[in-house]
Each structure stands twice: as C-alpha cells, then as structure tokens.
Here is the input.
Amino acid sequence: MIVAIDGPAGAGKSSVARLLARRLGFRYLDTGAMYRALAWLALERGIGLEDDEALARLARENPVSFGDGETVIVAGHDVTGAIREQRIDEAVPVVARHPAVRELMRERQRALGQEGDVVIEGRDIGAVVAPDAAVKVWLVADASVRVRRRHAERFGADAEALATALRERDERDAVNTHRAVDAVEIDTTELTLDEVVDRVAALVEERR
Here is the structure.
C-alpha cells in the first residue's frame, strides 16, 4: 500500500509521514530529501544549479538511497544532517525546478514506492508520482504556523527571514506543486501531530 502525503513546506508533511510510517510499520520515503541530496552533491562538486543537463546526469549517476531508518545516502555519503543546512534550503528549489531532474527523481521515487508498504511525502506524490496510491492526503496550515514550525527546525535562524524565505519558496515551488483531485485535505493549524496522524491512520484503515 502507498500512502501519499503532500502539501507546502511547514504544513507538517515530514513529521506526520515519519510518525505514521512508524505506527503502521511502513517504510518512510521523503522525496524532498532526494532533491536536497542532489543539491548537496551539486554544491560539493561545483556544478552550476542552473545547468539542467549536468544536474540530470549527476542524478542519473548517483541515485539517492535510504539506509537504515531515515538515513539519506548519495554518492556513498551519509548526508542526513547536511541536507538540512540553510544553503540547501536556498539551493533545492533551483535544482528541483529542472524538468529533466524531476523526471529522473520521479522514476526513482516510483521504483522505491513499489518495494512494499510505504508512506511517501512530497508536493506531487498523489497527483504525479503515485496517482494509484491507496490513500492521498493534502496537508495545509496557516502561514504563521508554518513559519513557527520551520523556525523550530532551524535553530538560531531569524524568524522574519524564514517567513520571507518560506513565502518565496512557495512561489518558486508552485509550478511543481500538484494536489490530487481525490486527496483528503487536513488543516493541521490547530491539530497536534498525534491528532493528524490519527486522522491519516484512520483513512488507511478504511482503505485496507
């Protein structure tokens, strides 16, 4: 079974998907981490973020994998922590907007999704990557709450700068953000993490 969880940054996708996967005993696939890993590798190797062909070649030759738990590996490097740095926040929207890169990543995501029960989170999973997912959820939240959550993830970061960055990222990511028409919307603004997971878990049980 595939559970697709989509939505904008700060809506709670990663936290919900991670906890849901643990509760259900499913694998957890963070598609955003795959783009982040590619951005990290491009920066490390000095590849221009606007070079579509070079980035696509880099992605093809260095498929991102997930080790035990939630470890993210690319080109033999454990980049689990490194891909959460501010420089990656700034680079990943540029990397992810290239059509050739997105197609390669989607192929990889589909392959990973066929390896058994999995919770996949991203921005276009239910609509593009796994349109046949048994459960599709679209998470939303008020802008102020999304900023607060992102601030908690980026210790020491300036809240005002994060708000600006989040707004700009929404604008950049809009073209690659697709909501499945049959996705169930859940507003996480006033809900605890456990409450959101409970709601999605109930949807999973309904589909089983």
The mean pLDDT is 90. The chain has one domain: 2-190. The beta strands are 2-6, 27-30, 65-66, 72-74, 77-78, 118-122, 135-140, 184-187.
